[in-house]
Structures are given as structure tokens and as C-alpha cells.
Amino acid sequence: MVILDNQMTTPGWCCSRTDGNGFFGDKYFDPEEWLKGLSAMATMFRDTKNVVGMSLRNELRGPYQNVSLWYRYMQQGAEAVHAANPNVLVILSGLDFDNSLSFLSPKQVKLSFTGKLVFEQHWYGFSDGTDWENWNQNDACGVAVESIRTKGLFLLQQGWPLFFSEIGFDMSGTHIADNRYLTCFLSVAAEMDLDWAVWALEGSYYIREGILAYDETYGLLTWDWYTARNPSFIERINSLQSPFQGLNFTYLCITT
């Protein structure tokens, strides 16, 4: 299965708060152009059966972000995709690099369609600051889980589909903070039967941020894309690839 994801307007590495791609009305983010692009992509893949969803915009962020414009344009974007392709899932991301959907707790989106809306949330070890390095592992996990619950996980309790479209960590196995984060994530994913996507598959890049043959330490594959960078992680996620409560899917994020 494939989920189309609108990442950036200009070519480049994603992301920063000041790259001009962060939010509607930013230097390189024209909402009207974006809506036309969503319609074009939804139309292009309308008859491609393995394209099951469209994520409207990845990691909204920056000085221009605000809740009012989020509702305005994300609802328009959802309607544009639905009009062009009524069969594809419509996936909405939140604010602050897709770390927060908390504003949806008192006010849900209003759309003309039902039964195909999905929310996405991101969770990396660095999302929790220095807690994994400085706190007891159990305490850090408890605080992190409560944080992601208030920022987005509550949507599951309200009956809305939500998946973690980006989770990731240093695959070397030597990063203590990331190892603690991973243990916490795996326990939560197992308990709640979460759907999730690992960022990223690639082991390296032809060029990234001006560096040739850049090694992706978060990549599932080694630099040569030949073997698993961290075989123990592959073993650990095997138990999560079978559903505990219902249908369950595992995704891999590929950056192109």
C-alpha cells in the first residue's frame, strides 16, 4: 500500500521552522497552489488501487502556524482530495512538526464526507527533549506517553483513526536515549495495537544537505541498502506486525 505525502514546496531537506515551507501563507507555501496540487495528485492516482491514502501536508510548523488557518485550509484540502478521488483515505497532520493535534479535542473538523478521515502523529525520541537522557526510564516513558496522549492519542479514545506516520531512532544501537525511547514506544504500540511507520527505509542518500553519499543513521538499511542496519530491531518489531485488536499495518517511509 502507498500513502502519498506532500512534504515540501521547494526541493530540499525537510525541515526547519524558517525554510519558508512551514505553514499556509509562508514564503513558499501558497494555499491555492497547494489545493490545485492536491486535486491533481488525487486525480492522477484515482485508478491506482494500491494508493490508499493522501496525507495533505507533512509537519506544519513555523512562525505563521495557527489553529484558525489549520481548520480553514485542511478542511478545504480534504474536500479537494475527496472530490477528485472519493475512494482514497484523507490523512490530516497537526501542528508543531506534527507533534500536536490537541486543538481537535474540543472542536473536530467539519467535512461533507465520513468514513475515510485519518489523523497522523509523529513521535521521535528527540520529541521528548532530554528526558530520556536525564530521567529514570520508567518516569520518562510515563511522561512521554501522557504527552502524546494529550497531543493526539486521545483521538483513538474518541473513535477516530490515528496512526504514527513517523517514528524513528538512531539504528546504531549505541544511542542510550533512543534505545530507551524505543522500548517505551514498543510497549505502547503493543498495548494499544497502534499502526505506525518507521522513518526511514533508506540507508543513504545520493546527496543530502550538500553532502554526497550521506549515511542515514535512522535508516532501516545499511549505507549500501543491502542488509538491516539493526537486526535486533527487526526481531523486536516482529511481534507488532500481527494485530492484537483488529487490522494492523506496518509502513516504511521512503524519502525521495
Strand content: 15-25%
The assigned structural class equals alpha/beta
Rg (C-alpha, Å):
18 Å
Determine the oligomeric state from the structure: single chain
Quickly count the helices.
6
Count of discrete structural domains:
1
The CATH architecture classification is Alpha-Beta Barrel
Level of helix content? 25-40%
Let me know the largest β-sheet.
7 strands, parallel
- Rounded average pLDDT: 93
The CATH homologous superfamily name equals Glycosidases
InterPro entries: GH, Glyco_hydro_5
Family: Belongs to the glycosyl hydrolase 5 (cellulase A) family.
Pfam families: Cellulase (PF00150)
Keywords: Glycosidase, Hydrolase
Question: What keywords describe this structure?
Answer:
256 residues; alpha/beta; seven-stranded parallel sheet; two-stranded antiparallel ribbon; 9 strands
In words, what does this structure look like?
- GO terms for molecular function: hydrolase activity, hydrolyzing O-glycosyl compounds.
- InterPro entries: GH (IPR017853), Glyco_hydro_5 (IPR001547).
- Belongs to the glycosyl hydrolase 5 (cellulase A) family.
- The protein has 256 residues and is an alpha/beta fold.
- It has a single domain, classed as Glycosidases (TIM Barrel), CATH 3.20.20.
- Helices cover 32% and strands 18% of the residues.
- The chain is built from 6 helices and 9 strands.
- The protein has helices at residues 31-44, 67-84, 131-134, 137-157, 176-192, 231-238, and strands spanning 2-5, 51-55, 89-92, 117-124, 162-168, 196-199, 204-208, 211-215, 250-253.
- The chain has a 7-stranded parallel beta sheet.
- Helix 1 packs parallel to helix 2.
- The chain is globular, with a radius of gyration of 18 Å.
